[in-house]
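Have a close read of this protein, sequence plus structure tokens, and explain what the tokens say about the fold. Thanks in advance:
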Amino acid sequence: RETLVFAPGKGWVTRTRRPAPISASAAVSAAENRANKPNTAEPLPDGEGPTLVSHEIDASLLKAGGSLHVTLNFSEPVSGLTADALNAPNVSVSTLVPAGDGHTWLATLVPLGAAEQPANVLTIDMAKVHDAVGNPGKGISKVASYSVDTKGPSATIALDGTELTSGHDIVATI
């Protein structure tokens, strides 16, 4: 028997199922249940979790007072995604929200404090990313590389003396 079912991320697909033998009392019970329930088009579990299909980051350098905006696009709608799924060195995920139907999520990264780190990699633990029926993704996906430069300039001043007297100079080295 073929059935048309909705599979998240795949749309309507045909599934072939072989009917299992049932007793006459089970058939009557099933018919009664159908008669008492409205017909709903619920998606059936597909057994596969979402994958990260694309991503964008609006800049590669995070400066003091700034933020980076990241767009994550998944193969199917994702539900309940939290910042815990993202590993973002030297920054904090200040917002993580779905856009539209859940295929796309938007994250904002802000600096944690004063840092000069030229090589940071944002990753997502796909095991913490679930589709609408609860299937988790697999593996760790690299999202983007970025640099953090939120540390202000500093200087060291050295004097060759501590007392300024007539006819003598003090040399300052910066």
Notes: Helices lie at 24-36. The CA atoms of residues 7 and 127 lie 20 Å apart. The chain has a mean pLDDT of 81.
